[in-house]
What does this fold into?
Amino acid sequence: MPTQRELEAASRLASLAVGGPFCVREFEVDESHAAGHLASRGVKVLSTPCMLLLVERGLRECLDEHLEGLTTVGVRADVRHHRPAPVGSRVRVEGWLLSVRGARLLLYARVLGPRGALVGEVVHERAVVEPERLA
It folds into this structure.
């Protein structure tokens, strides 16, 4: 069960759902993000799990800016990986807050690669939590 503090913080985030993306972060795709089974064949591209990692990291960082002393944890993700992003390229994560239900946040993120190409999309649910409850 969420605490009152978590519920109130999530409720305050609802204002982020208005307009364009509330979150924009850029990341460089490096060797640690490469799909191992393809890298061994000389193909070095962003793996699907690492794409999700960058989305989660970007959204958490953006949300943390609005959550005085609280944070969020991922609880569900629906990932669509549309095209490769090569190692050495930059990707841009853009995030929208779709809805707030209790302490749960439903978000949509898209990952854009070189020349603005759509690399992937993620519908992601995060929960607002007090960090000390995670210990």
